[in-house]
């Protein structure tokens, strides 16, 4: 039996019931694929339902302001995905008259869409035989064929794409692509794969040679950078504070945060108060206290943020224009959102 026949047979018996499986609308498939990049299905599902309810068409998403989109995305992380999604929605509406592109070559031109997402949409919605290659697919193919080429190397990316393309069922490429992704997610799992009940265990190289734990191979990650964040949580007598939008191309672009003093190591209260930014910000007398006695370590893909929240109380401050009772309307990084869930400013 051909590889794709056995895989699709497994899928039809074991596939997960998910809302984006009930449609071939490219807008909904696109939403789901963007959301599920770097995100588990269990976490992404509620966001997908919220987005499709609030923005049922690409026109609705296009006319929303970016701040609203980012607020709805809050907690999913990798916020460039949301900004690219919004940008591409406006492009589809304004440049393509609201008609979603229908070929791999056109879909991949959308901002934030790479080979994997373009392949998924083209195959599922338009029956184009373009193979998906994501983490699940890398794992299945490397184990089944016993491939040691690093999946995150230039050579590996080409090798696995070529292999995946050679295996696809050209008559039902969308079903095949969803099958291999589901198989990797629920059967050929990263840890504790279900090898004993696997339909491929009679022909899988990794299972035969006891290499399941060794495959796939990944090149060593980039060194993690440590950063030290000191947020100044301002509270005036009339219950006002400061939030400002993060600019530039770094993390959390477009999200809001308290005034930030970033340092190259942990710093104490005296160093905070004597810093140039603190002196510039507070011309009047203040009371300062550390909210979290232990630094909060917030881990991103290539950096760890060692964070302290400093509560700064002052009688009045011209720059403090945001009322505390409206602060949760702003899109903020999950690090700040978690703090706001805990902190209750006293009147």
H/I helix tally: 15
Mean pLDDT: 93
**Molecular shape:** elongated
Largest sheet: 5 strands, mixed
The string of secondary-structure elements, in order, is: HHHHHHHHHHHHEEEEEHHEEEEH
Helix content: 40-55%
Q: What is the terminal separation in angstroms?
A: 72 Å
The structural class is alpha+beta
Please report which band the strand proportion falls in: under 5%, 5-15%, 15-25%, 25-35%, 35-45% or over 45%: 5-15%
By CATH, the superfamily of the largest domain comes out as Hypothetical protein, domain 2
Q: What is the CATH first-level class name of the largest domain?
A: Mainly Alpha
> pLDDT below 50 for ≥5 consecutive residues: which ranges?
none
Number of strands: 9
User: What is the CATH T-level topology of the largest domain?
Assistant: Endonuclease III, domain 1
Report the CATH architecture of the largest domain: Orthogonal Bundle
InterPro entries: A/G_AdeGlyc_MutY, DNA_glycosylase, Endonuclease3_FeS-loop_motif, Endouclease-III_FeS-bd_BS, HhH-GPD_domain, HhH_base_excis_C, HhH_motif, MIG/MutY
Cofactor: [4Fe-4S] cluster
Function: Adenine glycosylase active on G-A mispairs. MutY also corrects error-prone DNA synthesis past GO lesions which are due to the oxidatively damaged form of guanine: 7,8-dihydro-8-oxoguanine (8-oxo-dGTP).
Enzyme class: hydrolase
């Amino acid at each position: 039996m051909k590889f794709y026949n056995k895989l699709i047979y497994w899928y039809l018996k074991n596939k997960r019931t998910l809302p984006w499986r009930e449609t071939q609308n490219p807008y909904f498939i696109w939403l789901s694929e963007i959301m599920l990049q770097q995100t588990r299905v269990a976490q992404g599902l509620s966001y997908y339902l919220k987005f499709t309810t609030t923005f049922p068409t690409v026109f609705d998403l296009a006319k929303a302001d970016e701040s609203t989109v980012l607020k709805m995305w809050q907690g999913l992380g990798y916020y460039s995905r949301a900004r690219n999604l919004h940008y591409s929605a406006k492009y589809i509406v304004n440049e393509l008259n609201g008609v979603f592109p229908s070929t791999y070559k056109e879909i991949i031109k959308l901002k934030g869409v790479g080979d994997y997402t373009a392949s998924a949409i083209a195959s599922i919605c338009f029956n184009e035989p373009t193979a998906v290659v994501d983490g699940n697919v890398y794992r299945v193919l490397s184990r089944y064929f016993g491939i040691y080429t690093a999946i995150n190397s230039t050579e590996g990316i080409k090798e696995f794409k070529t292999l995946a393309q050679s295996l696809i069922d050209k008559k039902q490429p969308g079903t095949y692509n969803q099958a291999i992704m589901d198989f990797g997610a629920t059967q050929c799992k990263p840890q504790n794969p279900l090898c004993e009940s696997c339909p491929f265990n009679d022909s899988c190289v990794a299972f035969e040679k006891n290499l399941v734990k060794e495959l796939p191979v990944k090149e060593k990650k980039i060194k993690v950078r440590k950063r030290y964040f000191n947020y100044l949580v301002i509270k005036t007598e009339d219950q006002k504070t400061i939030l400002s939008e993060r600019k530039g191309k770094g993390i959390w672009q477009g999200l809001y945060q308290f005034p930030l003093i970033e340092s190259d190591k942990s710093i104490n209260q005296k160093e905070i108060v004597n810093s140039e930014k603190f002196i510039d910000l507070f011309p009047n007398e203040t009371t300062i206290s550390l909210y979290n006695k232990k630094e909060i370590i917030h881990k991103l893909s290539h950096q760890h943020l060692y964070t302290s929240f400093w509560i700064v109380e002052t009688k009045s401050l011209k720059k403090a224009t945001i009322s505390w009772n409206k602060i949760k309307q702003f899109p903020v990084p999950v690090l700040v959102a978690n703090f706001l869930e805990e902190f209750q400013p006293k009147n």
